[in-house]
């Protein structure tokens, strides 16, 4: 499996990287975000939202599971951290197949419900403000997308 890596030295760099990625996204794209609490998943999503032309502030949707934002492309921001029953069906498919881009924080908790093709992103803390961002594309479209963003 191909893997792409970006080293971010501060929150701004993470945001700018995510914003650049957003410029390559299309309706129906699904991104998963893994990483410990405080790794930078929500920081990444905020950058992504800027890149999608979303004006509202994106906050961690911890208490709502799914938040929807209107932009040039809509963003469906999911944080499934508090989902106590992973088999609970909240109609995720409608988002995955919708007109927007879906970002799922703690995606492994709903592994069985994720679409086959997706861009898996891991964020790892390697220093106070340094993060290793690892992109693992599943499927052709996402592999090409990664090649493009890394070019
Ligand atoms: P998560 O959603 O993974 O729990 P958050 O994005 O909410 O994480 O929080 C990440 C925290 O780490 C923020 O306070 C952010 O400012 C800080 N941080 C420091 N360096 C970085 C970096 N390079 N990339 C992203 N966040 C960083
Ligand atoms: Mg978060």
UniProtKB/TrEMBL annotation:
<dbReference type="Pfam" id="PF02367">
    <property type="entry name" value="TsaE"/>
</dbReference>
<keyword id="KW-0547">Nucleotide-binding</keyword>
<dbReference type="GO" id="GO:0005524">
    <property type="term" value="F:ATP binding"/>
</dbReference>
<dbReference type="InterPro" id="IPR003442">
    <property type="entry name" value="T6A_TsaE"/>
</dbReference>
<dbReference type="InterPro" id="IPR027417">
    <property type="entry name" value="P-loop_NTPase"/>
</dbReference>
<keyword id="KW-0479">Metal-binding</keyword>
<dbReference type="GO" id="GO:0005737">
    <property type="term" value="C:cytoplasm"/>
</dbReference>
<keyword id="KW-0460">Magnesium</keyword>
<keyword id="KW-0819">tRNA processing</keyword>
<keyword id="KW-0963">Cytoplasm</keyword>
<comment type="similarity">
    <text>Belongs to the TsaE family.</text>
</comment>
<dbReference type="GO" id="GO:0002949">
    <property type="term" value="P:tRNA threonylcarbamoyladenosine modification"/>
</dbReference>
<protein>
    <recommendedName>
        <fullName>tRNA threonylcarbamoyladenosine biosynthesis protein TsaE</fullName>
    </recommendedName>
</protein>
<keyword id="KW-0067">ATP-binding</keyword>
<dbReference type="GO" id="GO:0046872">
    <property type="term" value="F:metal ion binding"/>
</dbReference>
């Amino acid at each position: 499996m191909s893997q792409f890596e970006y080293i971010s030295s501060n929150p701004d760099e993470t945001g700018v990287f995510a914003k650049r990625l957003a410029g390559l996204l299309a309706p129906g794209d699904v991104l998963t975000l893994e990483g410990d609490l405080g790794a930078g998943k929500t920081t990444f999503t905020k950058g992504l939202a800027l890149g999608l032309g979303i004006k509202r502030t994106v906050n961690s949707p911890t208490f709502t599971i799914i938040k929807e934002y209107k932009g040039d492309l809509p963003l469906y921001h999911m944080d499934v951290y508090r989902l106590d029953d992973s088999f609970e069906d909240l109609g995720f498919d409608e988002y995955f197949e919708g007109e927007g881009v879906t970002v799922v924080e703690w995606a492994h908790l709903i592994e069985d419900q994720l679409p086959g093709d997706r861009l898996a992103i891991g964020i790892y803390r390697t220093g106070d403000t340094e993060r290793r961002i690892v992109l693992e594309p599943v499927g052709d479209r996402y592999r090409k997308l990664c090649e493009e963003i890394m070019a």
